Amino acid sequence: MKLFIDTANIEEIREISEWGVLSGVTTNPSLIAKEGRKDFEEVIKEITDIVDGPISAEVVAERAEDMIKDGEKLAKLHKNVVIKIPMTSEGLKAIKGLNEKGIKTNCTLIFSANQALLAAKAGASFVSPFIGRMDDIGNEGMNLIREVADIFAIHGIDTEIIAASIRHPMHVTQAALAGAHIATLPYKVLKSMLTHPLTDKGIEKFNKDWEKVK
Ligand code: E4P
C-alpha cells in the first residue's frame, strides 16, 4: 500500500517527504483554506516540486463543462497533477471528459461501493472512500474499503483505491489489510505511526549499555 499525505501545508509535506515514504499528496479546498493561501495554483506547483507522484487538486465548479475547463488548467501545472472531482452526475461526466483528454482524476467523497463502481466505470484513475466521516455517523468506514477492494479485484478494475478521511494509525493498518492501494494521511497520523514507547525505551537501554563499555 502506498502512502500519500493529506495536507496543503508545504512544511509538513517537505518534512515527511524527507523520510522517503511518500508516494503522493492529496489536497482539498478545506485544506488549502486552512493554510490561508489564496494562490491555489501556486500551492499545487510548490507541492509538485517536493513530491514526485500523483498530486490531487480539487475543482470547486459544479457543472461538468466547468470542471473540465478548470481540470485542464490545473493539469497544465505539472504532469503529476490529478484532478479531484466530487461524486455527482456532473462529476462523472467530467471524469469521462477529462479521461478522454488523457487527464487523470480522483473521484472524491465516496461513501458507498456503488459510487466507487460508477466512478471507476466513468474512467477515474483513483477513488477516495472516506473512512473517518463514515465512522462519524455510526457506520464502519473500513467495510467500505473492503467492499470496494473486493469488487475491483473480482472484476479486474484497475482504478486505485485511496483510503481517505483517516483519523488514527489503526485506520492505516486496517486499510492496508482491507486492500486499499493507497492511504492518504494527515501529518499527525504519519507522525504517530512512527513512534512506539518500546522503541524509545530500547534506544535508551542500548545507549546506556554502550556507555558502560566505552
Ligand atoms: C481526501 O482526499 C480528503 O482530503 C480527506 O481525506 C478528508 O478527510 P477529513 O474527513 O478528515 O476531512
Protein model, in words:
The protein has 214 residues and is of the alpha/beta class. It has a single domain (2-211), classed as TIM Barrel (Alpha-Beta Barrel), CATH 3.20.20. It is 53% helix and 18% strand. It has eleven helices and eight strands. It has an eight-stranded parallel beta barrel, surrounded by eight helices. α6 links the parallel β5 and β6. The N and C termini lie far apart (42 Å). The model has no long low-confidence stretch (mean pLDDT 97). One of its GO terms (biological process) is carbohydrate metabolic process. It holds the Pfam family TAL_FSA. This is Probable transaldolase.
Oligomeric state as shown: single chain
**Broad structural category:** alpha/beta
Number of helices: 11
CATH superfamily: Aldolase class I
* Low-confidence spans: none
Terminal CA distance reads 42 Å
Query: Average pLDDT value?
Result: 97
Which strand order spans the largest sheet, edge to edge or round the barrel? 1-2-3-4-5-6-7-8
The percent range for strand residues is 15-25%
The CATH class, by name, is Alpha Beta
Number of strands: 8
What share of residues is helical? 40-55%
Query: What would the principal axes of the Cα set say about the shape?
Result: globular
CATH architecture: Alpha-Beta Barrel
Largest sheet: 8 strands, parallel, barrel
* Bound ligand species: erythose-4-phosphate
Number of domains: 1
